[in-house]
Amino acid sequence: MKILNAREERAAFIGALSRKGAVIAGTANIPGPDKNTGAARFIVDYFGKLCAERFPKGRVTNRESADGPFFIIEIAPGARLKEELVKIENGHPLGRLVDLDLYIAGKPVSRRDLGLRPRACLLCPREAALCARSRAHDYRDISEKISETVFSFLKTAVAENIDFAITTEASLDPKFGLVTPSSSGSHPDMDYQLMMKAKEAIIEPLLEIFASGYYREAGEALTAARAAGLRAEETMYEATGGVNAYKGLIFILGFVLLALGSCFREFSFDLFEKIKYFGADLLSEFTDTATFGKLAYRRYGITGARGEARSGLPNVVKVLPLLRDYSPASLTEALAFLIANCDDTVLLKRAGGLREYLRYRRMFANFGSYDPEKARALTDYCVSRNLSFGGAADLLVAALFIKKTEEKFKYCYER
Questions:
Q1: What per-residue confidence (pLDDT) applies to 286?
Q2: pLDDT at 113
Q3: DSSP assignment string, 62-120
Q4: Suppose 261 and one of 11, 86, 214, 340 were both cysteines; which one would form an S-S bond, judging by CB atoms 3.0 to 4.6 Å apart?
C-alpha cells in the first residue's frame, strides 16, 4: 500500500509541476517489494547526473519515496525532448534499467505518441508492459539480471580506471629510483615492459576483489577477496617470471576495490571507513618475524602497508587534494609527499636502518614545488644509493584510481 500511495503521490506531484512547462522524471526499473535497493539508488543518481549534463538549463531535484528514489528536471518545453530521452534509454548500457519520462502541460508524452516502439522486456523479447501486467517473470530473476547489468557496467569502468592508475604512475619519469619507461631505476630485475605485463596479469583478479565487495556480505567478502588477492599474486609471478612487481599494490588496491564494491552494493560512499573496517585485524597478523615487514613492526613499530590500510589509507586521503591533475608536476609532488609521510618498508629495507630511513624521508619533506631538474638530480641520487619507494608508489596508484573513479561517477567519497 505504501508503494502504491507513493507512486500516486509522485504522479500527482509531477503532473502539477509540469502544468507550466516540461518535467523529466527518472525512476529505476526495480521489481519486488524493496524499491530502495543500492542498485535503484545508483541508477537514479547516475542518470540524474547524466541528464543534468545533457539538459544543463534544467533545475534538478532528487527525491526519496517508498516506491524508490527518483529525480525530476524542470525544463522549458522543446522539440525532440522525448526523442533525446529515448536515445539515452536505448543507447546507454544501463538504459534499460531506467525510465526517463517526459511530462508537458500536466500530461505524459509516451513512445507511442511519437510512433516509437515500446520497450522490450529485460528477460525476453516481449513488450515490457505485457510481461509486467501478466507477471511473466519472477521478480527475483529480474532483480538478478539488474544486479548483473549494473555490475557489468561498473566492472568495465573499474577495469579502465585500474589500468589508467597503474599506467599513469608507471609512466612518470623521472621517479626517484622507481621503474620508468626510460629506466629500471634501482630495480635491475625490472623494466617498464615487465611492469606492463604484470599490470595486465593482475587486473582480472583485482576485479574479482571488487566483485566480492559488490556481491557479498562483509565477512564472506573479505574471505573471497583474500583468495582473489592470492590469485593476483600468482598471475603476477607467472607473467614476470618470478619478479615481485606489484605485490604491495595488490594488497593496497585490493582493499580499495573491496571497499568500493561494498560502496556500490549499499550505495553508501564512506569508502575510507569501509577500508578501515575491512582492515581492522591486519596488525594482529604480525605474529612472527618471518617477513621484513613483521620484523620492522617488531623492532621499530613501523606498520607499513598494513597500518595504512588498517587506518583507512590516511595518506591517500591527504594526498588526493594535491592531485590537481595528472601532469608530471602534480604526480611528482604527490609522490614526494607520500614518500615523506608514509611508513614504507621498501625504503626502510633499502636504507639499511632507521636513522637513514628517517633522513631520506626528511629530504622529500623539503622537496617543495616541482622542478624537472631537481626531480632528475634527486632521482640520480636515489639510484646511486639503491633507494626505492614502492610503498609510496602503491599509495599513489590508489590515489589515482580513487580520483579517476570520483571523476567517472561524480561522487566525492567521505573523507
A1: 62
A2: 86
A3: EE--TT--EEEEEE---TTHHHHHHHHHHHSTTGGGEEEEEEETTEEE-TGGGTPPPPB
A4: 214
pLDDT of residue 287: 63
Residue with cell 595486465: 200
Rama region for 267: left / alpha / beta (φ>0; ψ in -120 to 50; rest): left
Q: Identify any residues that bridge with 59 across adjacent strands, giving them in sequence order.
A: 74
> Residue 288: what pLDDT?
54
Number of domains in the chain: 2
Q: Identify the pLDDT of residue 256.
A: 98
User: Is there a single domain that holds both residue 266 and residue 323?
Assistant: yes
Question: Which residues, in sequence order, are CB contacts of 384 under 8 Å at separation 6+?
Answer: none
414: in domain: no
With CA atoms as reference, report the closest residue to 360 among 333, 381, 334, 330. 381
Instruction: Enumerate residues 6+ apart whose C-beta is below 8 A from 133.
Output: none
Show the low-confidence residues of the chain (pLDDT under 50): none
Rg (CA), the chain: 25
Among 104, 137, 170, the domain boundary falls at 137
* Residue 385: how many other CB atoms lie within 10 Å: 15
Preceding amide of 181 cis, omega within 30: no
Q: C-alpha grid cell for residue 90? A: 536505448
User: Which contiguous run of DSSP H or E holds residue 9?
Assistant: helix 2-17
Co-location of 268 and 398 in the same domain: yes
| Ramachandran assignment for 116, one of left (phi > 0), alpha (psi -120 to 50 degrees), beta (any other) | beta
If asked whether residues 182 and 120 sit together in one domain, one would say no
Q: Where are the alpha helices (DSSP H) in 241-371?
A: 247-266, 271-278, 292-300, 304-310, 314-319, 328-341, 345-351, 354-365
Q: Determine the Cα angle at 282 with ends 276 and 283, to 5°.
A: 115
- Domain membership of residue 26 as a residue range: 2-137
Q: What is the Cα–Cα distance from 147 to 153, expressed in whole angstroms?
A: 10
Same domain, yes or no, for 218 and 194? yes
